[in-house]
Known about the structure:
Order of helices and strands of chain B: HEHEEEEEEEEEEEEEEEEEEEEEEEEEE
Shape of chain A: elongated
Oligomer: heterodimer
Distance between the termini of chain A: 43 Å
Largest interface: A-B, 141 and 220 residues
Low-confidence stretches of chain A: 6-34
Mean pLDDT of chain B: 90
Radius of gyration of chain A: 27 Å
Shape of chain B: globular
Strand order of the largest sheet of chain A: 1-3
Strand content of chain B: over 45%
Amino acid sequence: MSTLAKTLATLGVSALLVSTAVLAVGEEAAADIVPCGDCHDTVAAAFAVNPHARALGREADPNAVCAFCHSGGAEHAEAAGDKALIDIPKGTAGATLCLSCHAGKSHNDIDVKGVHATHGVHCESCHSMHPGERVPESLLIKSGSSLCVACHLDVAGSFRKPYTHPMHESVDGAGKAGMQCASCHNPHGRGGEPGLVRSKAGEIACLGCHTDKRGPFVFSHMSLETAGCLGCHEPHGSVNPMMLTRSRVAQLCLECHSPTSSTTVGSRPPSLHDLRSPRYQNCTTCHTAVHGSNSSALLLR
Amino acid sequence: MKARQLAVLVLASVALAAPLAAQNLQYDLAIGYQWVDLDGNPDVYRTQTGEKDGFRLDSLNLLLTDTKGTPGYDRLRLSAAGLGSGPDQRLRLDVGRSKLYSLRLNYARHEVFSSLPGYANPLLGSGIWAGQHTLDRRRQTIDLDVELFPNRMLTPVFGYSRHTYRGPARTTLHFGQDEFRLASDLDETVAEYRIGLGFAAGGFRGSVVQGWRSFDSVNSMTLAPGAGDGNNLRPVLGTPVVSDHMTLRTRSRVDTPFLNAYVTGRLLDRVRLVGSFVRSDAESKVDETGEMTGHFASFALQRFFGGATQVGTGKAENLNWRGEGRVEVEIVRGVDLVAGFRTSHRELDGHSLVTERYLDTVNFSGALPGDITQVLRATTAWERDEDLIEAKLVVSPVTWLRLWGSAGKIDQDITITPALAEIVVPGNQGGVFERDIDRVSGGAELNFGVIAFGGDWTKDDSDQTVVRTDFTERTRLRGRVTVKLSDQLRVRGVAEKIESSNPTQGIGYKGEVKHWGANLELKPIEAVTIRGGYDSYRSDSRINAFVPYPPAPIRSRYSEDGTNVEGSISAMLGRFTFGVGANRYTNDGDFEFDLDSRYLRFDVGITDQLGVYGQIERRTYDEKALPAADFEADRYGLFLRWNGK
């Protein structure tokens, strides 16, 4: 049996075993949620498997879970379900409530006054606290990247280009593997560069996967230190191979390596570089170590 | 992922599930087969999409929850996608028990494939379409994070990550006045261990994590079959340059201890503080060896030679640290002030020693046979400090209006000390740079429910540049609108314009990006959704440059004029769901091409829990300058899905 067949068979059998073992009693847990569930029976039944159902621990009265986010429940019930009397936290107030548990998870923390909040995007814009019977990962209202591009239309267009990070399917919502926007961006953080995901060692998101570019190299390509990866590459998608910002390699290199003034870094290629020859139109044919080298200051190997 | 590893993982999950006899279960599983029928260049297709024939676990989601008190864990989520033939595969396990522990395991595997005839191929003009720089590697990552006693006062955290990057590639080596194609085999492993402590006390939370990372990479390269004549088929000084043997081996080891700390908390209910610090100190050791035989020339040595041996060692130390602080103050209700600073330091010291022994040398006049040894010592250093200070004021006088403005300043100090060895043309390889960037921005957001507008403006000014393509002035203007007339109709649009410039004498950089897009979603009836979208991306960049030979100043110009048009319709008729869609990306700029994609997807529910879905996708690529890159690929997939709870 091939490796793939074994993998799929194992997964299938495992899922079957697990489901058989626990399916019969799944409804029992849901039935205990009262009295909110007397009226909100569908919500209450579904909420049994919601991560928030565990918020106060297994020992707590299930109603305490509802009350944790919704105040005014008693008045609401006494007034025969008057919606005006039950608190449904939204916006900044809702975010503040969510953050009473969810704050402090990373150095680029959930930011109630961050760039999304500034634009009126709060917790409930992306997360559904009552998602129904199926509980999606992170309670997202849509799968990761397709949720982001619903607003970030300009970025969605980048993933229609021929050379992109492996996201074109996750942007459509059709594919479930590959990268997601959140692979590089912290949706809860700040905008721009400070909102990028960083490794625990503090490196930018690109180096989380492209570990061979981390170095340190004895001879760094200085543009990496000054302009970063975006000095030469389009991060979302590019019309050019290798997601470069220029279609011709020599053009990309020469725009920096043309010291027509003395105030910038970028050395001049010597005159042996006859740009009429294809050999010299493709700089990386010789300068293969463009990201950094340990033995050649000219980044030749 | 190997079947055995996966089986162990899943069976372990099942074993853990056994005591959970009183739990809730949700699951869905989709497996199937896909195949690709392709006309044209298969390498370009695979470079762009990664897709190939084979069985695939399209998705697996398994969620077990317990709110009643079974020992072990009270939640377990296992999800996977793409396993099998998928170019991108992932598996996640999230298991834990409230207030006791939380364990997250992520596994990802990516195929890194690139083989393009038009990329850096000097032989393209001769009709040789095989790319000289190709990759066919696999990247695998495993991340494990364990948190004990989550949401308690003290929370020990442990983590382990392992990253491998392996497989063959093709590259080139410039040697002896020619370039030779090499077959490369890379074996790279990164292992990282983390231990730390989270804390929560008195309204403050944070954590301190210490980590250790090791990087070990071996890259073995040999002369590719048939590459002995090199790229340059013409003789050098009347003598052909050829190679019959080349081997190079590079081993790199990097040790990186790091410290990561942050704290966040509230003061007086209206003030929030965030602080962080991260420091890493990487130290690398590199050993290189190489052997080449054949017939070569060297203008630097002014000799022909019959071979060479190279031995090199290199060491580099890279210290980074970054500290950050931010305060958020609600001055009065509806008026918020956010102020912060960031300071970072990054420095590198590196040195290398390379001994090259040239065998059987003959000078250009035919005399002085013998071996020559050349020793190259080089050191390099740079240092970069950056300080950022910024403040932002957000005012929301009424619920439908939000206004904000911010100002900030970035000070960059960069010192570059170049390696003196190997400098052929002096100048512009080092120096001391002090660049200050002032940033001002503002914006407004109006939300009337049915219609919402937003816009913002950012202006950056800098006093000098470090590299030529840096701006001295940049303006960014963005706008967006959302119209939601009902649940049946929604229209969204965005527009952006960025202008950058650097008028410095001799540089004359000017860049402009105009980008706008809009989409529409219409649901005439509940079961039918129609979507349409348009996206226009235009960029134009000009900068003075200098061609080294024949020496001449030029005006380097690059443009993109991309347009994406797309539309789709999906409908649900009882147990039958289908969707059709198409999009076309056309670039009329410097690199002209058309990329079309059309698809048909369907799903047939056999029972409430069982169904079949499939898709047919046609992707057509038409590159104007190089028809050898074109392809038309049909991808078919048929999957069985099973879900329940």
